[in-house]
């Protein structure tokens, strides 16, 4: 490295959203970098950035519209030099980054499963006929409608605490939250059960934290390389290549999960009609070196099998 490491006098600025989960993730990146380079916390500055998606809480995300609702302001700060790195939940990230930014550093992936959260019901299978469940995720809503057309789906937004309060108020009897977020916040106990991927395939990149940087910043590139988790990189390469070929984002009813088995990668994918009336699933196995090709290939297959009109988002 030509440039010196960050120091308390010249701290590395870590940009993040202000939600409890986002802050936890930013602190985790600081911890990993600190451990890798023997740096104190004071060598880093955590910069909280307000994003559009966090400020409008009374509308479904698809109504607010536009890409990068949770990332635009953070990426602008990164480009402007107001921050040096940005920490993100990879499942919220578009498949293409703005010119001049790179997103290729991932921490080891957490639990990829969705959690079933309910004060009174033990699992998805135990939900009574016609029960009201809350979710604002297009993927989860479509997957639920497909399996349980009897359920009534209501919009549910906000952080874990807000959603728990809504459940207590009886707005819905159950909701769904990524186990990864619950585990990180020490709140896994609110999940009555974790839903197996076979029952509900998770979102592409669920459970993975990514660190974005300026392409030209070689000092930061070298630092991030030291904390990058290779297996997570391979899995996300496959899942995100599939998502990209499907023109998907975190606001489309698409699920995908790659797992490594020895030197092989096993990728599963699912696309749904938003109303859950139809789902198309597929899988690919191949070498880990061909991760992105596997993802594109599976996307092509799913596209080829989808009747016209299936992709309301394309
Ligand atoms: N879309 C919001 C979001 N983005 C990342 C997570 C959880 C953490 C993760 O998947 O890494 C969540 C909340 C949720 O789906 O429960």
TrEMBL record:
Keywords: Porphyrin biosynthesis, Transferase. Its EC number is 2.5.1.61. The keyword Transferase applies. Pathway: Porphyrin-containing compound metabolism; protoporphyrin-IX biosynthesis; coproporphyrinogen-III from 5-aminolevulinate: step 2/4. It holds the Pfam family Porphobil_deamC. InterPro entries: HemC (IPR000860), Porphobilin_deaminase_cofac_BS (IPR022419), Porphobilin_deaminase_N (IPR022417), Porphobilinogen_deaminase_C (IPR022418), Porphobilinogen_deaminase_C_sf (IPR036803). The keyword Transferase applies. GO terms for molecular function: hydroxymethylbilane synthase activity. Gene3D superfamilies: Periplasmic binding protein-like II, Porphobilinogen deaminase, C-terminal domain. Residues 12-221 form the Porphobilinogen deaminase N-terminal domain. It catalyses: 4 porphobilinogen + H2O = hydroxymethylbilane + 4 NH4(+). The modification S-(dipyrrolylmethanemethyl)cysteine is found at residue 250. The porphobilinogen subunits are added to the dipyrromethane group. Belongs to the HMBS family. This is Porphobilinogen deaminase. It comes from Paragemmobacter kunshanensis.
């Amino acid at each position: 490295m030509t440039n010196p490491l960050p120091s308390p006098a010249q701290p590395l600025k870590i940009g993040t959203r202000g939600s409890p989960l986002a802050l936890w993730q930013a602190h985790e990146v600081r911890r990993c970098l600190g451990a890798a380079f023997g740096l104190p916390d004071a060598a880093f500055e955590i910069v909280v950035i307000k994003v559009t998606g966090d400020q409008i809480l009374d509308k479904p995300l698809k109504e607010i519209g536009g890409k990068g609702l949770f990332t635009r302001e953070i990426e602008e700060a990164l480009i402007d030099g107001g921050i040096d790195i940005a920490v993100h939940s990879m499942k919220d990230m578009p498949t293409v980054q703005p010119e001049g930014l790179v997103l290729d550093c991932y921490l080891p992936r957490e639990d990829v499963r969705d959690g079933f959260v309910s004060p009174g019901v033990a699992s998805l299978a135990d939900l009574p006929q016609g029960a009201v469940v809350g979710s604002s995720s297009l993927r989860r809503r479509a997957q639920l409608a497909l399996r349980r057309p009897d359920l009534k789906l209501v919009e549910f937004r906000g952080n874990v605490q807000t959603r728990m309060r809504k459940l207590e108020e009886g707005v819905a009897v159950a909701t769904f939250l990524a186990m990864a977020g619950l585990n990180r916040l020490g709140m896994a106990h609110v999940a009555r059960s974790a839903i197996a991927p076979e029952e509900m395939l998770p979102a592409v990149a669920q459970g993975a934290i990514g660190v974005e940087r300026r392409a030209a910043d070689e000092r930061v590139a070298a630092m991030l390389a030291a904390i990058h988790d290779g297996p997570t990189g391979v899995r996300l390469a496959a899942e995100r290549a599939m998502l990209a070929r499907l023109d998907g984002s975190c606001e489309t009813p698409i699920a995908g999960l790659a797992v490594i088995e020895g030197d092989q990668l096993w990728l599963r994918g699912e696309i749904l009609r938003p109303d859950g009336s139809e789902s198309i699933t597929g899988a690919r196995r191949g070498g880990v070196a061909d991760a992105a090709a596997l993802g594109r290939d599976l996307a092509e297959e799913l596209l080829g099998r989808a009747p016209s009109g299936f992709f309301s988002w394309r």
